[in-house]
Amino acid sequence: MKKRVLTTMLLASSLMFAQNASVKDFDHDGIPNNSEKILGTNPYNADTDGDGINDLKDKYPLNIDTKFVKSTGANDFKIREVLVENNYDEVAKKDASDHLEIILQNKSAKDISNFTLFYKIVDLKTGATQSYILPLKGFILKANAKKSIHIDTKKAKNHFGANPNSLYYNSKNKLKVFVTVNAKGYEAQSMTIKKDAGGTEVAD
């Protein structure tokens, strides 16, 4: 979406919100929930892309305005796999709804924490892109352990909030997802994966 059009929509949303106290705004960013759906922003996060700028003030609320710098240091963890479909819930022992899942492996004898995720989604038909920075607060990768992090709308341990209005959930086209995982004092790890056309499948 072009900068001028998006800015106009944000201002109109803010005005509508100010004039109607009954309009819902879950994240209190000044943009009504129904407008967030149209804009593609997250109604549960006032800073959808995680770049530190409130959505109402952000000219590009779906793409980070700051450069994401990869962490450096010991090469003690790796990304074993990235899933964007055909997910499986190992706790419930059943298929899970499609979501971004990153399986990490700690190759060292020390716990690793202070993770931050950067990911970018590209619609391979339209060329639309979205990018996000997401601190993985509270996530600890135990020594010599393998663990998954889940970027979705589920509230559970090791699940972190996805934008429910993102390309991942709304586009029916083929997507490419770029992932980089940072950990303070460790070498960043990256992986890219494609998602088939058809949108997200919901587990039965």
Description:
The chain is α+β, with helices and mostly antiparallel strands and 204 residues long. The protein folds into 2 domains: 62 residues, no CATH class; 119 residues, Immunoglobulin-like. Helix content is 14%, strand content 31%. The strands form 3 sheets. A 4-stranded mixed β-sheet has the order 1-4-7-8, with no helix packed on it. Strands 6-5-9-10 form a 4-stranded antiparallel β-sheet, with no helix packed on it. It is globular, with a radius of gyration of 18 Å.
Total count of helical runs of at least 4 residues: 3
Number of domains: 2
CATH topology of the largest domain: Immunoglobulin-like
Order of helices and strands: HHEEEEEEEEHEE
- Give the rounded overall mean pLDDT: 91
Count of distinct strands: 10
Indicate the percent of residues in helices: 10-25%
Structural class: alpha+beta
Q: How big a fraction of the residues is strand? A: 25-35%
What would you report as the Rg, rounded to the nearest angstrom? Answer: 18 Å
Could you give a short account of the major beta sheet? 4 strands, mixed
What coarse outline follows from CA principal-axis ratios? globular
